[in-house]
C-alpha cells in the first residue's frame, strides 16, 4: 500500500499522515496536566497537615497513657524540675521509657518537618516538643483539675493554637479551649 493512494468514504484520495501527536495536541495535554496539578497540590498540603496533626495527637495520647500508668504505679506525677532542656528531656525519656515511650513520641511531626527532619534517635537531636505540667508529688493532684492540661505542645504549628491533652485523655487546641471556657465563664486552673 505504500505506492497507492488510499480512498476515503467519498471516493477521493488522501495521503496518510504519519502517526504521532501534533504540537497543538501535546500543548493541550500539558495545559490540562498543569491545571490539575494546580488544583491538587493545595489538597495534598492540606492532607499532609491533617496527617501530621493526627500524628501529634497520637503522640500526646501515648504520653497520656504512659504518664497515667506511671502515676498509678508510683503514686505521684514524675518529679522532673531540671532547668536545662537537655537534662529535662533525658529525665522525662527515662521516666516514661518503661511505659513504651521513645524519643519519637516526644516529637511533633510538623515540628520535625519544619526543622529539616533531624534524626531524633541521635543524642544531639533529642528534644521535647510536648511540655508537661509540673504537678506536686501527691497521688491525686494530676486528676484534681479538669481544665489543667497534662501536656502542652511546644508551639502553634497546626494553626489553631497549641494542642493540649487533659486528665480525661481529651485533646484540644488552645483556641478551642479558650472559646469553650469564655462561653462557660471559666479559666484554666
Structural notes for this entry:
There is one protein chain. By secondary structure, the chain is of the alpha+beta class. The protein has one domain (19-184). It is built from four helices and six strands; from the N terminus they run ββαααββββα. The strands form two sheets. Strands 3-4-5-6 form a four-stranded antiparallel β-sheet. Strand 5 and strand 6 form a beta hairpin. The radius of gyration is 29 Å and the shape is elongated. The mean pLDDT is 83.
Secondary structure blueprint with pairings:
Elements: E1 6-7, E2 13-14, H1 23-74, H2 85-96, H3 109-114, E3 130-132, E4 151-153, E5 163-165, E6 171-173, H4 174-184
Antiparallel strand pairs: 1-2, 3-4, 4-5, 5-6
What labels describe this entry?
189 residues; alpha+beta; two-stranded antiparallel sheet
Helical region count?
A: 4
Structural class: alpha+beta
Q: Poorly predicted ranges (pLDDT <50, ≥5 residues)?
A: none
Helical residue percent band: 40-55%
Radius of gyration: 29 Å
- Beta-strand portion reads 5-15%
Give me the side-by-side strand order of the main sheet: 3-4-5-6
Summarize the structure.
Helix content is 43%, strand content 8%.
Amino acid at each position: 500500500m505504500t505506492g497507492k493512494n488510499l480512498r476515503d468514504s467519498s471516493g477521493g484520495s488522501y495521503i496518510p499522515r504519519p502517526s504521532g501527536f501534533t504540537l497543538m495536541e501535546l500543548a493541550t495535554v500539558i495545559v490540562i496536566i498543569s491545571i490539575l496539578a494546580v488544583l491538587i497540590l493545595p489538597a495534598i498540603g492540606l492532607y499532609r497537615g491533617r496527617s501530621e496533626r493526627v500524628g501529634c495527637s497520637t503522640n500526646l495520647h501515648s504520653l497520656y497513657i504512659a504518664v497515667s500508668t506511671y502515676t498509678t504505679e508510683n503514686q505521684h506525677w514524675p518529679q522532673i524540675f531540671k532547668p536545662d532542656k537537655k537534662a529535662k528531656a533525658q529525665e522525662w525519656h527515662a521516666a516514661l521509657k518503661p511505659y513504651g515511650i521513645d524519643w519519637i513520641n516526644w516529637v511533633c511531626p510538623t515540628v520535625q518537618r519544619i526543622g529539616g527532619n533531624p534524626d531524633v534517635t541521635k543524642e544531639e537531636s533529642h528534644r521535647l516538643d510536648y511540655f508537661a505540667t509540673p504537678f506536686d508529688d501527691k497521688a491525686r493532684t494530676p486528676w484534681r483539675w479538669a481544665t489543667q492540661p497534662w501536656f502542652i505542645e511546644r508551639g502553634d504549628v497546626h494553626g489553631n493554637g497549641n494542642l493540649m491533652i487533659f486528665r480525661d485523655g481529651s485533646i484540644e487546641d488552645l483556641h478551642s479551649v479558650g472559646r469553650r471556657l469564655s462561653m462557660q465563664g471559666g479559666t484554666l486552673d
